[in-house]
């Protein structure tokens, strides 16, 4: 997240009906491939291009981003969805810009997959490993590094991990995992 902008304000949208009940999301049960392709389709429909500013996108969706006060204990990330176009993503003050980008995309995964774009209220902090978190991670990767544009970029960059990480504004670890997921073969590059 850019250092100069620490909060994205909420836009005004009409709220759709929200279900009452448990705020803990439930896994969709969808496959990794399905979520990966869904995330790529959503990013395309929203006009997101790899490396674009996610703060602007969150604002356009009616959400806001806050950084948790450093004096208080916090998680790497969390999201509270109150309704359609009404959500807050909270980030840790101790993470890098690349980590924040992945966390924002992860929390958007919860918004799209688990709150069904605000039709279910949810409140979740990123912790542990469970199917809900796996799905949000798959969404984040598919959103930030869509398979179709990644395959093209992989060829253009000769598989160079560092060039790919810079182009998609993600960590080299995310690139390495994406190469493995898409069976593209890891190129060795020394920087």
Describe the fold and architecture:
The protein contains seven helices and four strands. The protein folds into two domains: 144 residues, no CATH class; 46 residues. The N terminus is likely disordered. The relative contact order is 0.18. The radius of gyration is 16 Å and the shape is globular.
Shape: globular
Cα gyration radius (Å):
16 Å
Q: Helical percent range?
A: 40-55%
Mean pLDDT level: 85
Distance between the termini: 25 Å
Low-confidence stretches: 1-21
Sketch the topology as an H/E string, one letter per element. HHEEEHEHHHH
Oligomer: single chain
Percentage of residues in strands? 5-15%
Q: Structural class given helices, strands, pairing?
A: alpha+beta
Q: Order of strands side by side in the largest beta sheet?
A: 1-3-2-4
Count of domain modules: 2
How many strand units?
4
Number of helices: 7
Largest sheet, in brief, is: 4 strands, mixed
Which secondary structure elements does this structure contain, and how are they paired or packed?
Elements: H1 32-45, H2 54-60, E1 63-67, E2 77-83, E3 86-91, H3 97-114, E4 122-125, H4 131-144, H5 147-156, H6 161-168, H7 172-181
Parallel strand pairs: 1-3
Antiparallel strand pairs: 2-3, 2-4
What's the short version?
The chain is built from seven helices and four strands, in the order H-H-E-E-E-H-E-H-H-H-H. With about 190 residues, it is of the alpha+beta class. The chain has a four-stranded mixed sheet with strand order 1-3-2-4.
């Amino acid at each position: 997240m850019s250092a100069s902008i620490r909060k994205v304000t909420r836009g005004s949208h009409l709220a759709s009906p929200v279900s009452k009940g448990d705020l803990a999301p439930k896994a969709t049960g969808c496959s990794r491939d399905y979520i990966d392709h869904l995330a790529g389709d959503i990013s395309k429909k929203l006009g997101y291009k790899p490396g674009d500013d996610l703060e602007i996108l969150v604002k356009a969706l009616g959400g806001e981003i806050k950084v948790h006060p450093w004096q208080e204990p916090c998680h790497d990330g969390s999201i509270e969805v109150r309704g359609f176009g009404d959500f807050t993503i909270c980030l840790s003050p101790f993470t890098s810009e690349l980590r924040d980008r992945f966390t924002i995309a992860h929390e958007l995964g919860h918004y799209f997959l688990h709150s069904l774009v605000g039709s279910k209220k949810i409140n979740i902090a990123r912790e542990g490993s469970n199917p809900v978190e796996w799905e949000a991670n798959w969404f984040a990767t598919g959103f930030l590094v869509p398979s179709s544009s990644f395959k093209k970029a992989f060829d253009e960059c000769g598989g160079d991990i560092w060039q790919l990480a810079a182009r998609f504004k993600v960590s080299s670890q995310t690139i390495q995992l994406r190469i493995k997921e898409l069976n593209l073969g890891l190129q060795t590059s020394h920087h």
